[in-house]
């Protein structure tokens, strides 16, 4: 085998190895990305400074005791583009932390008008929305892509 043939064979082997690595890595990424529940935690004190930070929350462990319903933030479940039980009423006092969860059978984005809070909502996953109740009034909470109102947020002085 000549020197140029060896180089060509070596180049083909390197290309095959690189392509195999990329395909294997993408397959592993696809498998691991389907198991997490996304939570959005808000740490800023004013809506204009607010930047949502996704926080991965593990799926509930069946061996752990379930918290009482009053200790859990409200959950809005959306099926076929509509909130179960209609548009939910969420009430908080100014100065408290707004805290609620949303789960949908379709991927979308949760948007809280007035506060301009948003959170990606993967299909079948639960997103937790938390931020300081710093502005009093009534605000629409919607699935942004579907333009569907899922809750009415009221912050009282």
The shape, in one word, is elongated
Give me the secondary-structure category.
alpha+beta
The CATH topology of the largest domain is Immunoglobulin-like
Strand order of the largest sheet: 5-11-10-7-8
CATH class value of the largest domain: Mainly Beta
| Rg of Cα set | 23 Å
Order of helices and strands: HEEEEEEEEEEE
Strand content: 35-45%
Number of spatially distinct domains: 2
In helices, the fraction of residues equals: 10-25%
End-to-end span in angstroms?
85 Å
> On the 0-100 scale, what is the average pLDDT?
73
CATH-scheme architecture of the largest domain: Sandwich
- The number of helical runs is 1
The poorly predicted ranges are 23-65
CATH level-four homologous superfamily name of the largest domain:
Cupredoxins -  blue copper proteins
Largest beta sheet, briefly?
Answer: 5 strands, mixed
């Amino acid at each position: 085998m000549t020197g140029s043939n060896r180089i060509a064979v070596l180049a083909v082997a390197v290309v095959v190895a690189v392509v195999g690595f990329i395909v294997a890595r993408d397959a592993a990424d696809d498998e691991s990305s389907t198991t997490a529940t996304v939570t959005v935690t808000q740490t800023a004190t004013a809506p204009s400074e607010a930047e949502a930070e996704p926080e991965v929350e593990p799926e509930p462990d069946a061996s752990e005791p379930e918290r009482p319903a009053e200790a859990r933030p409200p959950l809005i479940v959306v099926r076929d583009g509509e909130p179960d039980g209609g548009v939910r009423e969420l009430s908080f006092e100014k100065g408290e932390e707004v805290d609620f969860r949303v789960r949908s059978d379709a991927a979308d984005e949760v948007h809280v008008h007035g506060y301009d809070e948003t959170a990606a909502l993967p299909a079948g996953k639960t997103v937790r929305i938390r931020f300081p109740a710093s502005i009093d009034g009534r605000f629409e909470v919607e699935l942004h892509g579907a333009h569907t109102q899922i809750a009415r947020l009221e912050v009282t002085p």
